[in-house]
Amino acid sequence: MINQDRLVQFFMDCVQIDSPTHHEGQFAKHLAGVLSEIGFSVRFDDAGEKLDSDTGNLIAKLPGTAAKNPLLFSCHMDTVSPGIGIKPHIEDGVIKSDGTTILASDDKAGISALIEAVKTAIENNIPHPPIEIAFSIFEEGGLHGAKNLDFSQFQSKKAFVLDSSGRPGQIVIQGPAQDKVNVTIKGRPAHAGVSPENGISAIMIAAEAISKMKLLRIDSETTANIGRIEGGGATNIVPADVSIFAEARSLNNEKLNAQSEHMKACFEDAAKQFGGEAHVTIERMYNAFSVASDAAIVKDVVRACEAIGIEPFTTQSGGGSDTNIYNAGGIEAVNLGIGAQKPHTLEEHIRVEDLVNASRMVLELIKG
Length: 368
Ligand SMILES: [Zn+2]
Known about the structure:
Layout: H1 4-15, H2 25-37, E1 41-44, H3 47-51, E2 58-62, E3 71-76, E4 89-91, E5 94-96, H4 105-123, E6 131-136, H5 144-147, E7 158-164, E8 170-175, E9 177-186, H6 202-211, E10 216-219, E11 222-231, E12 241-250, H7 253-274, E13 277-286, E14 289-290, H8 296-307, E15 313-316, H9 322-328, E16 332-337, E17 349-351, H10 352-367
Parallel strand pairs: 3-6, 3-7, 7-16, 8-15
Antiparallel strand pairs: 1-2, 2-6, 4-5, 5-17, 8-14, 8-16, 9-12, 9-13, 10-11, 11-12
Helix pairs in contact: 1-4, 4-10, 6-7, 8-10
Bound molecules: zinc ion.
């Protein structure tokens, strides 16, 4: 029932409307027009003002034609860099960019699959529940748009996030929490040749701390990494300042607390040992989520996949998505594979077959 040509054309049009993070406005306006035309009431929230974007999150609602529970579908409108002037083309059934930009199938494939599915349901008079849509801004780099959503405006108890890079059939039911760990180490400068004993080396404090730290794979659920270290200057000066940027993740919120505190303690202990100072900030970017593999929302997706002849499977993600924010906000959510392969790279691509299957899967979810 899905109109493949129309879907592909819609997708190609979407990726050619630039929407880098903070500049989602033009694309949002395009989507608002399309959704209004097919019967949605559309509004924007005030997240754009708070987040310095030229639009807020797009919220759209379509009344149901069947007495069923409302469903929420979510995608993000912003794209990573380089994503300006995308020129898509189709080669052997695969949609690609010209190699100088990303493709932006992350997440415009999700948006396109969803809109085509809803159009199809409406045109074919398929009874559907009330449909709620949230298209977020500023997802890339911190899920900020979703964090600013007012969840009380939704009636839905279930949310399907269409934003996983797996092929249709993939159901992400677990995602990690993440902490940003930023450190400023203060030592004391001194001439390295004349009076090094008067100095306190911030680099030596950092080295001591990091050498004592549990990093990389901590356990099956937990990881940690020092991503960047900056500091020092001329070789004849004992370095007084070092900045360190690190992260930790875990599928278990308590384990993440423990890992981040461990990292903090290593820096503080080393600073104390050398007589310097370590200022450590731990920022929880988002909490972990876990949906039971036999939850009703998972069964809904399994049934939808089986109805169109694709193999459903559950998995966990190593990264954050708006799914984390929905679950934390009290709306049970899973992240579904839509076939956007190699996102955030110049080799990003999507098979036409996967785009169509993503849309067919959404249509089955709508049918219920
Ligand atoms: Zn994405």
